[in-house]
Amino acid sequence: MTALTLSTSGAATLRADALVVGVAKAAGSKSGGLVVAPGAEAVDKAFDGKLATVLETLGASGAEGEVTKLPAPSGLKAPVVLAVGLGPVPAKDAAYDAEALRRAAGSAARALKGSKKAGFALPTESAEDAGAIAEGALLGAYAFTAYQGGENRLAPKKSAGSDAKLPLAEVTLLGAKPRDKAFKAAAERAVAVTEEINRARDLINTPPNDLYPESFAAVATAAGKEHGIKVQVLDEKALAKGGYGGLLGVGQGSTHGPRLVRLAYTHPKAEKTLALVGKGITYDSGGISLKPAGHNETMKCDMSGAAAVFAAVVAASRLGLRVNVTGWLALAENMPSGNATRPGDVLHMYSGKTVEVLNTDAEGRLVLADALTRASEEKPDAIVDVATLTGAMVLALGNRTFGVMANDDAFRTSIHEIAEEVGEASWPMPLPADLRKGMDSPTADIANMGERMGGGLVAGLFLKEFVGEGIAWAHLDIAGPAFHEGAPYGYTPKGGTGSSVRTLVRLAERTAAGDLG
After folding, report:
1. What's phi and psi for 96, nearest 5 deg?
2. Residue 69 CB neighbour total at 10 angstroms
3. How far apart are CA 243 and CA 147, in angstroms?
4. How many CA atoms lie within 13 A of 172 on its CB side?
5. For the chain, does the N or the C end have fewer beta carbons within 10 angstroms?
6. Dihedral, CA atoms, 51, 55, 56, 57, nearest 10 degrees?
7. Distance from C-alpha of 279 to C-alpha of 332, rounded to nearest angstrom
8. CB 357 within 8 A of CB 344
9. Helix (H, G, I), strand (E, B), or coil: what is residue 199?
10. What is the DSSP string of 238-267?
11. At what angle do helices 181-205 and 127-140 cross, to 10 degrees?
């Protein structure tokens, strides 16, 4: 993991592989007009006050995330200066946006892959700024290397300089006041949250031959022991005895049996309880309703919701939040076989309802339904489920925005506002009552499919049927942003992203503070 330190050293005297500074585009400027951002005064001085001019000559525009490297002048101890764009200069008396700082730090950290140490001299007017920069840098420095660099006895030994693929080893925040309690707390929070996001990313990126329900449950159990979280794992026998027909129905086609994992973080002074439910399909072939060619290759990511819930519970424990947080990981592998659930089968759910399965590729809602019913039995103050649930949500909102549905408009608004606050793009979506009729079944209480148009909303309406009376509930469909297939940008890597973890953690913080009523 990349280390984080707060330093009182000046940029000119810090010994590091590189110094990161911010540059912005002057207001009203369409080209050029660079402004060196606060925090980089010493670096600009070493360039005789001409850093912006030099960068303009090199073609820098100050655009968000743009990275320009140049050799440092003799007045600096670091040999390289890396200028990263922050976008437009803020209006008078306004601070740089936290998400702009987060993305800039992430872009810089990615560009410094293979370096040992970098000093970040970005605008740090407040502890919140320091926390955003730390988050961005630590997330941007992420790399999934567990399956790379294996020993080959016939190949020559690697040289000492073969660590170019390794992430930036140390991030040093300059101007971050290490003796100030608020700055120290912001840094500690950033480390805890980003380490858990990166743990979620690791799980999402792990190949499905190594990550299946049993092995995922083992990871959760080990983390529980480390962080004082109570963990309960229900295996196939326990699920059958308990009547968890959704989980069993989805998982019965695989040699890897399903699991329901309960994680419980409790605080002795907590007044509220938050339940988080995650879809954990460790691989989704579509089952008998097999996915077409070209849609299977990334289906290891279909457990991203469970990874996010797991990460959020552990982060809540590490932060010592004054709230009880229970996580439910609904884990199964959806495979076609002679034992697999068929379209037309009827499942007896944990709630007592029966579900006619019209499409075995609409399996996430089946495992979530059992977990939602079980979570409701404990009567939490609120439930949030997270899932890579529907392609329809990707069609509606694209690859970077998740949808938010809820049985309470105020709660939906709160989740949306929290997501925007922490830098996760989201959008509130409705649950139109008229779409419910499409799931009427002549055979069972409800079918797992309804109208094709508005499919993401239909899935939300299905889940709503399994939430206990009087419990505020929200559903996050993260099918778009959970797994990034394009080139990395900002602090977002290629592959698993850890989408929604920051939203869930901030929700837990607000609940602990009594801000959600």
Report:
1. -65, 140
2. 13
3. 38
4. 19
5. C
6. 100
7. 9
8. yes
9. helix
10. HHHHHT-HHHHHHHTTSSS--EEEEEEE--
11. 20
Q: Position 229: which residue type? A: I
End-to-end CA distance of the chain: 37
98-111 vs 127-140: helix crossing angle, rounded to 10: 40
Reported for 56-61, long-range contacts at CB under 8 A and 24+ positions apart, including other chains, are 56/32, 60/23, 60/34, 60/85, 61/25, 61/31, 61/32, 61/34, 61/85
The C-alpha atoms of residue 477 and residue 426 are separated, in whole angstroms, by: 9
The pLDDT tens digits along the chain (517 residues) read 899 999 988 999 999 999 999 999 987 554 458 999 999 999 999 999 999 999 999 999 999 999 999 999 999 999 999 999 999 999 887 889 999 999 999 999 999 999 999 999 999 999 999 999 999 999 999 999 999 876 554 555 554 445 667 899 999 999 888 889 999 999 999 999 999 999 999 999 999 999 999 999 999 999 999 999 999 999 999 999 999 999 999 999 999 999 999 999 999 999 999 999 999 999 999 999 999 988 899 999 999 999 999 999 999 999 999 999 999 999 999 999 999 999 999 999 999 999 999 999 999 999 999 999 999 999 999 999 999 999 999 999 999 999 999 999 999 999 999 999 999 999 999 999 999 999 999 999 999 999 999 999 999 999 999 999 999 999 999 999 999 999 999 999 999 999 999 999 999 999 999 987 6
Alpha helices in 252-329 (DSSP H): 304-319
Helix, strand, coil proportions of the chain in percent (round to 5)?
35, 20, 45
C-alpha distance from residue 267 to each of 228, 274, 363 (Å): 11, 12, 34
Between the CA of residue 509 and those of 21, 40, 216, 427, 517, what are the distances in Å? 31, 33, 26, 21, 13
If you search the block for the tokens 């399909």, which residue do you land on?
281
- Residue whose entry in the numeric block shows the structure tokens 């955003």: 132
Q: Is 291 among the catalytic positions? A: yes
Non-local CB neighbours of 439 within 8 Å, separated by 6+ positions: 446, 447, 448, 449, 450, 458, 461, 462
Q: List the one residue out of 141, 193, 143 whose CA is nearest residue 170.
A: 141
Question: From the candidates 291, 353, 464, 494, which is the catalytic residue?
Answer: 291
3-state SS of 127-184 is: HHHHHHHHHHHHHHCCCCCCCCCCCCCCCCCCCCCCCCCCCCCEEEEECCCCCCHHHH
Residue 259 annotated to the active site: no
**CB atoms < 10 A from the CB of 455, how many?**
21
Spatial distance between the Cα atoms of 341 and 10, rounded to a whole number of angstroms:
64
- CA dist 74 and 68 (Å) reads 19
What is the number of residues in the chain?
517
Q: Which of 102, 117, 259, 365 is catalytic?
A: 365
